[in-house]
């Protein structure tokens, strides 16, 4: 029996072709993908295509589009064995992270991929990314999906979606998962590292939680920054601070005073690291003690993309019991090393 994969095309470079009159890139009709890539007809799975009505640059992807994707997966969950989302590369890590929190009780693969060059380009990376993603999206053993999480496949590597970041705008190998090992790698053989795969051990039936708040602000700390600027920003529910190293910030009474004032106004403060690899460890250095004093929340070894989308999903979400801090601090779907 051939597995059925639903391919959701949202936009991005992978679905572009060159307009030879103008020289610029434009989206082609993705309904004709089988003409562009006849190899897809040779796959050991059936592929059904659902393109967005209007393909989007990934910089236009956000909460409303995440909800469209989750709703479409929910409506079609029982009819397909796997889902492949074609997406622009710039914000793919944000979408993959958000979907990992919004899709509950997932027992089927949801793979995201894209490309650095258009599918019609002679040197494109699009075809390999697309074809191998289809393999992963349709991979089953003993009538059970091998991958049961949201993942990104790019340039021969399968990565946990909420652990990824885009680190290169130039190389085909554009994505990294610095704090979690790869889930699989394609070469002559299609390899899976089963010990690294996520499994939802709850008895939860598949459902979606589309709650997303946009009342979140992300701020990168830098040397010489004037803390008084924080007094001028509007009140928000969550402030995510990207700080130095394992959790340090300039030590002064002004720093403590202003951050405490923000906390007293009801804003949750989450701390993540500017380092690509490693994570936050309050108390390791004296200059991190200010965060313990004000009751800030450690983002541990989460990526910025994952921390942002997790905060958006959790803050004031009526579907969770317990405090924001309690829920944010625990690993929900493998986004934190425990």
UniProtKB/TrEMBL annotation:
Alphabetized InterPro entries for the sequence: Asp/glu_Ase-like_sf (IPR036152), Asparaginase/glutaminase-like (IPR006034), Asparaginase/glutaminase_AS1 (IPR020827), Asparaginase/glutaminase_AS2 (IPR027475), Asparaginase_C (IPR040919), L-asparaginase_C (IPR027473), L-asparaginase_I (IPR041725), L-asparaginase_N (IPR027474)
Enzyme active site: 13, 89
Alphabetical list of Gene3D superfamilies matching this protein: 3.40.50.40, L-asparaginase, N-terminal domain (3.40.50.1170)
Domain Asparaginase/glutaminase C-terminal residues, every copy: 216-317
UniProt domain L-asparaginase N-terminal: residue ranges: 4-193
PROSITE patterns linked to this entry: ASN_GLN_ASE_1 (PS00144), ASN_GLN_ASE_2 (PS00917), ASN_GLN_ASE_3 (PS51732)
Pfam families: Asparaginase (PF00710), Asparaginase_C (PF17763)
PANTHER family attached to this UniProt entry: 60 KDA LYSOPHOSPHOLIPASE, L-ASPARAGINASE
Family, similarity comment: Belongs to the asparaginase 1 family.
Name under which the protein is recorded: Asparaginase
